[in-house]
Amino acid sequence: MSDTVIKVDNLSKKYLISHQQTERYVALRDVMADKAKSLGRRVLSPFRSSLSAPRSTLEDFFALKDVSFEIKRGDRVGIIGRNGAGKSTLLKVLSRITEPTTGRIEIKGRVASLLEVGTGFHPELTGRENIFLNGAILGMTKAEIKRKFDEIVDFAEIEKFLDTPVKRYSSGMYVRLAFAVAAHLEPEILIVDEVLAVGDAQFQKKCLGKMEEVGREGRTVLFVSHNMGAIITLCEYSILLNSGFIEAIGLTSNVVSKYTIGEQQTENTFLPERGKRTGDGRAYIEKVKVSPNPLRTAEPVEFEFTIDRSHDGRDIQVELAIAVKTEAGTPLFQIYSQHMGRTFLLRQGKTIINAKVDNFYLAPGNYWVNVWMGAGDEPVDWIQNAMLLQVEPGFLVAGQCADSRGYPVIVPSSWDKIDLSPDFLE
């Protein structure tokens, strides 16, 4: 008997998109004049169709195109990609919410899906009634649902509101109950979209733990998230979607690396129009150059900041910081000019500031970097995930290449040996 529980062959999903011809900007007086003319035409020629109706064209849009993969029993699989890549469409097709346009899907086992807040709930029914309704939809008997009922309520933490119609629940309560039902009613396949982001951090951690447990029990989990830390923690394998196509599939560490490097290459990180930045705007970091490139473990590194202050003539005293994180977002360390007693006076125009690190003790791998410029505690320009550092193996001592054995930071140390005599040991 095959262990494959989901098999997808050449799956495509096509939608028709309507494009209405754009018109020039119209003021209120233009609208009123057009309405008056239209009314006059209808009075004079009541059977003539309107000539001013906007024209539209239809375009084929493939949310998924020629997607093929297999998932085995007990696999925990992450599905990642940019917004619009086709992740949610894929889950809806696998959950039988929407039909594929072409291709073939084989699914073995009972599927529980959590794709949107309130999926599968009847708003007029109470939390208690919806638990039994969802169980019945999954094909469970009343006795099976009763056996799991207390676990579901404890996990969702909604005991006080169990007999309240779910239409009165907050989005967080909805998600807690929906996930508890989906995870506890023993589906062979659990499909979870980014909806968990609605919950608080503690509940998200609880859900990740439950999904790990589901996987260990031999059941299959498909998980869509933009949180790479959660994907790396939970999923052994991942699928990277890009514009409806599979760009990469395999071990999660490899797929996430490909995704994060691709994000770095497409976002023009240090251009002035960079969107993901905060600060009061009195100056901005135009560019950061890292040398050498690529970096190597335990070797010197230099960061060169180009700062633009041409739009504001007033001088400003600033500090600079660089924060380094793992690909999953775990903070590792920061380099902060004020810790070294250095602040910088920015005058009108452009300024270059250098930061040097004598030994960069990062293990080989990829790391995200935040860059920060502030005046006191106030951020002037702060860019999160501004750049992706790629570190290659270097040498701690002659002939010995750095091997992290899974730990991101390598700390140099000295070692001595003292031989104790047998008499001393007695």
Q: How does this structure look, described?
A:
With 426 residues, the protein is α+β, with helices and mostly antiparallel strands. The protein has two domains: 64-265, P-loop containing nucleotide triphosphate hydrolases (Rossmann fold), CATH 3.40.50.300; 277-401, Distorted Sandwich (Coagulation Factor XIII, Chain A, domain 1), CATH 2.70.50.60. Helix content is 25%, strand content 35%. It is built from nine helices and 21 strands. The protein has helices spanning 28-44, 87-94, 127-137, 142-156, 171-184, 201-216, 228-234, 252-266, 422-425; strands at residues 4-20, 56-72, 76-80, 102-107, 111-114, 189-192, 220-224, 237-242, 245-251, 277-278, 284-291, 295-296, 301-308, 316-326, 331-336, 344-346, 350-357, 365-375, 378-392, 395-397, 400-401. The strands form five sheets. Strands 10, 12, 14, 15, 16, 18 and 19 form a seven-stranded mixed β-sheet that branches. A six-stranded mixed β-sheet has the order 5-6-7-3-8-9, sandwiched between helices. Helix 3 (127-137) packs across helix 4 (142-156), helix 4 crosses helix 5 and helix 5 (171-184) packs parallel to helix 6 (201-216). The termini are far apart. Mean pLDDT is 81; it is low at 265-275.
